[in-house]
Amino acid sequence: MQRNPSNRDAFYELPEYVELLARIAANVRVLREARGWTQDEAAHQCLKMGVLVYASIERAENNFTAVTLARLAIGFGVDARSLLDPAAPMPPRKPGRPRKATTPKTL
Fold first, then answer.
1. Mean per-residue pLDDT, 37-41
2. Which residue, 26, 57, 23, is CA-closest to 43?
C-alpha cells in the first residue's frame, strides 16, 4: 500500500500542528534568552544537538521527534510538558545578527 504524499503533507498545514510548533518554538526561545545563551550554546546544552536543528526548532520549521523534545527539556532543565504550554506572543525580531555589547577602551 502506497502513501499519498499530498495527503501527508496536508497534515503539516493543519492549524493545530502549526500552533504546536509555534508554542514549542516560543517557549524554547524564551528559555534560551532568559539564560543569555546563543543558539549555539543552547544547542550544545541540549545534548550536543546540531545548531541548525536547534535553530529550525526556534523558527518552528522542524517536524522533530519525541527524543528531540526530551533533549530540549533536559538541556533547559524543564519538564517536557512546559514546552507545550501556550506561550505569550513573541515580539518580532529585527533582521540580522544582534550587535555584541562593546566595552569602552581604556587608554
1. 96
2. 57
